Each structure stands twice: as C-alpha cells, then as structure tokens.
Amino acid sequence: VQLQASGGGLVQAGGSLRLSCAASGRTFSNYAMGWFRQAPGKERDFVAAISWSGGSTHYADSVKGRFTISRDNAKNTAYLQMNSLKPEDTAVYYCAADAVILTATPAGYNYWGQGTQVTVSS
Q1: CA–CA separation, 82 vs 91, rounded Å?
Q2: Closest to 31 (Cα-Cα) out of 39, 23, 40
Q3: Which of 2, 11, 24, 27 has its CA 20 to 30 A from that of 111?
Q4: Which of 66, 79, 69, 73 is nearest to 19 (CA)?
Q5: Close Cβ partners of 29 (under 8 Å, ≥ 6 residues apart)
Q6: H/E element holding 67?
Q7: Phi and psi based region of residue 54 (left: phi greater than 0; alpha: psi -120 to 50; beta: remaining)
Q8: What is the DSSP letter of 15?
C-alpha cells in the first residue's frame, strides 16, 4: 500500500497550490482521509480531513476558509486546494488514509504518504 503526495512547491504569499494524494495497493473509498503538516522543529499538525463519501469535512481553524479538501474515489485520490497561502503555511504536508472515522488525530490513520514540501515566501 502506498500513498503518493505531490503538488508541493515554492509560492509567494497570497498564491495557491493544489496537493494530490494518490493511493495504490488497495482502495480507501470506505475510509476517511486527511492532510497534516509539519514545520521544522514542530509537531505534526492536523490540516483537514474528509469522510469516505466526501460529504463531511473538517478543517483546522488556521486554514478554514482558505483550504479545501476533496476526494475522487474513482481515482483513489485526495486533494488539498490551498489558496491565500501565508508564510506560516510553510511545512512538509503529509496525506493520511484509512481512518475509520473523520478525525484530526494522527493515530487514527493507518497509512501515511512520504510528504511534499510547501514553501511560502513573504
């Protein structure tokens, strides 16, 4: 089972990026997926999560109104659209899958991607 995160890069403040998380090896269409991020010297923080159907979402307060999580179960892929990016959004972003319920807790996810770097310059 693999989760491949992509779409990170360097962007100026106010810009946008779209992250993708492609799963292979099994389907996660019946499980919640999420995005987390980790800045240097800090703990891994919750960013957003989406239910198996896509009908329910949950966001960290720091990204609410700027980021949008979505998924395409036919492609076994989750996305994170990030708009109005700020320098404090700079981090390695990780996707996670296989959570039984919609959760912001890292321990709730069984599979993790390798991370993609997002750098926002001021």
Answers
A1: 13
A2: 23
A3: 11
A4: 79
A5: 52, 73, 76
A6: strand 67-72
A7: left
A8: -
For residue 76 the two structure tokens come to: 């076994």
- Determine the distance from the C-alpha atom of residue 7 to the mean position of all C-alpha atoms in its chain, rounded to a whole number: 11
- Look at the alpha carbons of 5, 45, 17, 99 in this order and tell me if their dihedral is positive or negative: positive
Q: Which helix (H) or strand (E) holds 82?
A: strand 77-82
Local confidence pLDDT in tens for the 122 residues of the chain: 899 999 999 999 999 999 999 998 888 888 999 999 999 999 999 999 999 999 999 999 999 999 999 999 999 999 999 999 999 999 999 999 988 889 999 999 999 999 999 999 99
With 0-12 / 13-18 / 19 or more C-beta atoms within 10 angstroms meaning exposed / middle / buried, residue 30 is exposed
